Every structure is written in structure tokens, then in C-alpha cells.
Amino acid sequence: MAHIIVVGNEKGGAGKSTVSMHVATALSRMGHKVGVIDLDLRQKTLARYLENRLTFLSKKGLDLPTPDFRELPEVEKRELAPGENIYDRRLSIAVAGLEGVADFVLIDCPGSHTRLSQVAHSLADTLITPMNDSFIDFDLLARVDSETNEILGPSVYSEMVWSARQLRAQAGLKPSDWVVVRNRLGAQAMVNKKKIGDALDELARRIGFRLSPGFSERVTFRELFPRGLTLLDLKDIGVERMNISMVAARQELRDMMVALELPGVSVDF
User: Fold this and answer.
1) Which of 100, 135, 234, 237 has a Cα at 20 to 30 A from 82?
2) Assigned CATH topology for domain 3-260
3) Main-chain dihedrals φ then ψ at residue 26, nearest 5 degrees
4) How many CB atoms are located within 10 Å of the residue 62 CB?
5) Residue boundaries of the structural domains of the chain
């Protein structure tokens, strides 16, 4: 059985597709077979990222490790069992088609609450939730008192993750390993960063997730997208000397891959 990685939250702009692309490509470059499904049927950012990659590699005559992207198949309503949801069937077929050929299946969820996202979360062996390092995004995980920053209770998204974990338990599956990735950690505003860190540490103990460092805000990531490239591809396209920002970003990727603790993965870059 493939190990299923789900990248999800219910807010846009947290870097889900950047994290998804780098995790999937890093695994591919380390010799693992990786399948990818994009559940954001409107924006399709990850799908476009991979499309850009194939186009760039074709133009340059390059052959770099690339995840296997699969579209959700179309399903006729007459093919559904009584009471069966069409999105459940489409996702089930896509995942089943990859499980026999992939070591890992990565599913990128939209930044909104959808049926597809709900189902995907229940499939997650590893759940990655990127968040910007601010109390605006902290609200994704929990409700906070505006005066004291005291945690009042879990958010709607955290409750959805809890429900998905319950479904896995009922099916006899192991609990999802939930990893919250702190993106866009600022170099300044140390007091605010510490407050968020303390609040995350407390919430992690209460609702059961682990914390991982993520990516800082860097121009490099915006430059990579049009060509479908990741930080690990730069030397293959002739970048002999990386600038300081590229080196730092590559180290951030390595730290995140180590923190994910994916089964059978030895981070070697």
C-alpha cells in the first residue's frame, strides 16, 4: 500500500502547493515512485506547476525525476451505488490507480472546505498543514482570546481533522501523523514569533500534531513556478553557484523533509 500524504488547510496563501511540489519532487529525486492528485479543481495550482515542469523539461531536453500526476477521472452518475457521492468515487478511483505503482501518493487540497477535502483528510497517513506564522493563520487551528491570546478551543478545521481521525480509527487504520508546517517565519518581530510558537506548542499537546519548520518568504519560489522547478533542480539546469537565499531555502527544505519522518525515507541532499 502506498503511504498517503495529504497537504491541506482551509485558508489560501499558506504555501500548500509550494510545499506539495517540493515534497513530491524531493521524494522522486530520492528514488521513490510518487503519484500526485490536485483536488483544487478551480485553481489547479499544483497541476499547473507540474504542467510547467513537463513543458520546461521537454523544451530543454532534460530528464529529471518528476511525480506522476493524475487527474480525477470522470464518473457517470449511473455508475454510482445508491447514496454514493460522486466525488468519493472519483477520488477513490484516482487513489486506487496510483496505489499499485507508487510508494507515496500526495494529495493537495483546496484552501476551502469541500467534500473532496474531507474525504482526503480521512485517507491521510501523513497530514501536512502549512500555515503562515501569524495569529491570522493560527485561527485556522484554534480560536484565541484577542486580549490574552489564550486558546479558547479548536477551530472548525481542527474539528474536521479530528473527525477524519475518528473515521480512520473506525476503519482500523493508524491515526494520521499530523504535521503543522510554519511557513514565512520572519527574521524580525521576535516577540510575536515567540508568542505564536508558545501557543502552537500548547495547542500541539492539546489536539495532537507535531511542528515542523517550513519555508521563509523568498523570491526564489516565485521564480521557480513558471518553469516547474524546485530547489533541488537548480544544478541540473546549469546553476553552478547558488546565492545565499537559494542555499538557505534548500536547507529549509531538508529540515522539513527530515521533520516529516516519512517511512523508508532517508534524506540525502
Assistant:
1) 100
2) Rossmann fold (3.40.50)
3) -60, -45
4) 12
5) 3-260
